[in-house]
């Protein structure tokens, strides 16, 4: 190696590390809202592998929350805090799962119960006990969704809260507003009948509609007090509706532990 090649290659490595990760960003303030989908191995032929976080990584990530002093909240606890009826913990966090896959109950829940971490699941009402039928099975295999019995078992544990993710998982930005209203109102009503309590938390499928004022207004009009986007970032804390839909930290299968740490401290891991 010539005299210049070594410093140049160091500079190249440093530039690559800066370009790939956000470690140089200032620490982000706010509420970390982790967003998961599936836990376990991706279904065969999956084109959405990044949505299946491995069980051992998931365990490490949940343990990270406890080791770093976070208090993972149930939706109902977040509501009580924001209504001023409960004190806020020093470091609140929110663990969320979209869609309601059976692996949430069968793989994630035993881990959460074992280490004592609370989490929340956004359910797609019409897929309870069925499959992820909104996916084209040619590109994304159908897998089992949670059954109502599983929902009830998780609810009875006191460790899992629930919100709505519509009736059928359609993109609310691409259907008539009346149908979007129905997706939101009907799922709220039907889930409330099944869960026996008010459903105040809502996540937009694909994050779609979160930035469409009429759709967001319809979510508020349906009675949801908290709406969640897929936009990446730390949520403002304390959150109020006029701050916009709640951003989340997208936890991906191919994240390494440094990525996870950056998500928790900078609000994003990579570009
Ligand atoms: Zn979804």
Your description of this structure?
The protein is an alpha/beta fold and about 270 residues long. It has helices at about 5-20, 55-65, 75-80, 100-115, 150-155, 175-195, 215-220, 255-265; strands at about 35, 40, 50-55, 70, 90-100, 120-125, 160-165, 200-205, 225-230, 245-250. It has a single domain, classed as Glycoside hydrolase/deacetylase (TIM Barrel). Strands 1, 4, 5, 6, 7, 8, 9 and 10 form an eight-stranded parallel β-sheet that branches. Strands 2-3 form a two-stranded parallel ribbon. The chain starts with a helix and ends in a 5-residue tail after the last helix. The model has no long low-confidence stretch (mean pLDDT about 95). The structure holds zinc ion (ZN). The site of zinc ion has 5 residues, from strand 5.
Layout of helices and strands, plus pairs?
Blueprint: H1 5-20, E1 33-36, E2 38-39, E3 52-53, H2 55-67, E4 71-72, H3 75-82, E5 92-99, H4 102-115, E6 119-123, H5 148-157, E7 160-164, H6 177-195, E8 201-203, H7 213-222, E9 226-232, E10 246-250, H8 257-266
Parallel strand pairs: 1-5, 1-10, 2-3, 4-5, 5-6, 6-7, 8-9, 9-10
Bound molecules: zinc ion.
């Amino acid at each position: 190696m010539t005299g210049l090649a070594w410093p140049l290659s160091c500079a190249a490595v440093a530039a690559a590390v800066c370009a790939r990760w956000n470690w140089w960003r200032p620490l982000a303030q706010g509420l970390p809202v982790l967003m998961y989908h599936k836990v376990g191995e991706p279904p065969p032929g999956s084109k959405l592998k990044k949505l299946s976080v491995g069980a051992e990584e998931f365990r490490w990530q949940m343990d990270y929350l406890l080791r770093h002093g976070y208090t993972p909240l149930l939706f109902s606890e977040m509501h009580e805090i924001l209504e001023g009826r409960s004190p806020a913990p020093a470091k609140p966090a929110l663990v969320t799962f979209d869609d309601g896959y059976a692996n949430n109950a069968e793989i994630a829940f035993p881990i959460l119960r074992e280490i004592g971490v609370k989490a929340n699941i956004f359910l797609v009402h019409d897929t309870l006990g069925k499959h992820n039928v909104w996916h084209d099975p040619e590109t994304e295999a159908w897998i089992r969704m949670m059954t109502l019995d599983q929902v009830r078992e998780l609810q009875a544990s006191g460790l899992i809260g629930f919100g709505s993710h519509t009736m059928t998982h359609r993109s609310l930005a691409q259907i008539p507003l009346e149908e979007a209203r129905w997706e939101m109102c009907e799922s709220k009503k039907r889930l409330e009948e099944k869960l026996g309590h008010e459903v105040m938390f809502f996540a937009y499928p694909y994050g779609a509609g979160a930035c469409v004022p009429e759709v967001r207004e319809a979510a508020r009009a349906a009675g949801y007090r908290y709406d969640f986007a897929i936009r990446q970032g730390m949520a403002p804390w304390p959150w109020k509706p006029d701050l916009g839909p709640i951003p989340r930290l997208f936890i991906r299968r191919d994240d390494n532990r440094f990525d996870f740490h950056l998500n928790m401290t900078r609000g994003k891991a990579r570009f």
